[in-house]
Amino acid sequence: MTKHIYAGTGVAIVTPFRKDRSIDFNALDKLVKHLIKGGVNYLVVMGTTAESVTLNTDEKQAVINYIKEINNNKLPIVIGIGGNNTQEVVNNIKKQNFDGISGILSVSPYYNKPSQTGLLRHYKNISTACPVNVILYNVPGRTGGNISAETVLKLAKDCKNIVAVKEASANFDQIMEIIKHKPEGFAVISGDDGLTLPLISIGMEGVISVSANAYPNLMSEMVSNALKSNTKKARELHYKLLDFTNLIFAEGNPAGIKAALEIKGIGENYLRLPLTKISRSLYKKIEEAMKSI
Predict the structure, then answer these.
(1) Residues forming the active site
(2) CATH 3.40.30.10 holds for 8-228
(3) What is the pLDDT of residues 269-287, one digit of tens each?
(4) pLDDT of 206-224, one tens digit each?
């Protein structure tokens, strides 16, 4: 079977900020080079972890262009284009320059809680408008709604450019239903760092990871070993990262990973409101976990 373009480790890249909350392009340069050197398989730009909802259109485009320049076609780039207004998402797709872009990651509509019929029509409109690959993103804990296995499978079968789903529901029954019945060439990707190893064991093809911002080499190696059924090595790396992974999500994402990147000297620990820094006590716990790694 041909290896899927989104198999392995994708990384949901943070947007580094300076103290005045402007974008820190020097830190971004350092981060992207760190990720490429760390052996990740593709880059995910302007996802939730990038605090994309607090960036304006010009800022988003500036970050995308900058990462494209640093990457220089070394790795596939996926950009986040989603929302809860279907027409606006379609308009944003039509305005986007897709040179050097492999696909989009499109989060399911949040807050307005559409039915499964609404979700189906939302994504079919996106699929029709989009000239590149589409990865569905199901994250009920953030959106307040779930894309059912039936809806994912229908979209996978009906829309040629819908090539994958990032599943962050932690619902193993639903995930197994998708894996069991998905068409050939459709990838199911983990959206939960800490569950990636068990999820690969039931048929997932990789992860779009947050903790890989700090440890791209360890996450990539863990996923690679898991996909090759080198269970002992994969398990060793999984447990090496597990405490760190749990801690960086303890007070919300990307507050935890930004603290970790500051500890590593890659970027400063600043977020845009309504997000705020993690507590001092959690910062110390992350620091200790990183020492043990």
Answers:
(1) 137, 166
(2) no
(3) 999 999 999 999 999 999 9
(4) 999 999 999 999 999 999 9
